[in-house]
Specification:
Elements lengths: L4 E8 L5 E11 L6 E11 L10 E6 L9 E3 L6
Parallel strand pairs: 3-5
Antiparallel strand pairs: 1-2, 1-4, 2-3, 4-5
């Protein structure tokens, strides 16, 4: 099964080797039939501490690295 890849914006880089990425998606409201934006935050592993707040990054699923981290940042060359 292929790994999921999500794209989002870094909202926090305060943790050591950890960033928080906000991913937005659009859904169609079931009753109103209107497009609604939904967002979710993911903790991602950033080995080199290379990414800063406000940057757009791609994250990919991985084996759990800690209690909250099950995603890791794709290297800039791969994205």
């Amino acid at each position: 099964m292929p790994k999921r890849i999500l794209e989002g914006v870094v909202v926090s880089d305060k943790g050591d080797k950890t960033i928080v990425v906000k991913v937005e998606r659009t859904i169609l409201h079931p009753v109103l039939k209107k497009t609604v934006r939904r967002s979710k935050k993911y903790h991602a592993h950033d080995e080199a501490n290379a990414h800063k707040e406000g940057e757009k990054v791609k994250i990919v699923e991985c084996a759990p690295k800690s209690k909250l981290k099950t995603w890791e940042v794709l290297p800039k060359s791969a994205s």
